[in-house]
Amino acid sequence: MSRIGRMPVTIPTGVTVNIDGESVRVKGPKGELARTFSPLINISLTDGQLIVQRDSDEATQRALHGTTRALIANMVTGVSTGFVRVLEVDGVGYRPELNGANLVLHVGYSHPVVVEPPAGVTFEVDTKARQVRILGFDKEQIGQLAANIRKIRPPEPYKGKGIRYAGERIRRKAGKSGKAKK
Q: Are 80 and 30 within 8 A, CB to CB?
């Protein structure tokens, strides 16, 4: 049995869960999420806890068991507390700023790069620390948006300039050695 799949998902106060066959709809103070899961997995609501079960030990059902439970747990956590992803902008002249709700990145191109937030996502910018915080209730959407922003100017291995996740370590290269002696 899956260690993650057999753990129940506790539902905090203020969060409502509706199960309609294979679709699960979670509504909370931060927003509302809905997702359809495989019919091979049974999802039930008992005593304020969501329980995810499978019928047999087939490989496909074992693979779906823990994944389904983790996705439901992320939905419940997202609508109750939300998720944050932090990016750091490093480099001479590189800086993030907010223009209304849009994120404007000055990262060495001839033009500033403007990133518009999708619905349910907000940006916070700390100009002193050159950090961008991406806030929202859909973990998948937050992670994909952070990856897309990082892709605008990924960190390079020689000086480490670029956009990286907070706490990410960049493998540095030595670069050229000095001029050879004659």
A: yes
Same domain for 127 and 69: no
DSSP secondary structure letter of residue 182: -
CB 33 within 8 A of CB 76: no
| Whether residues 102 and 158 fall in one domain | yes
Helix and strand numbers (H, E) in the chain are 2, 13
Containing structural domain, residue 123: 83-165
| Residues 12 and 77: beta-carbon distance below 8 Å | no
pTM of this structure: 0.88
* Residue pLDDT, tens place only, 91-131: 999 999 999 999 999 999 999 999 999 999 999 999 999 99
- Do 108 and 47 touch, CB atoms closer than 8 A? no
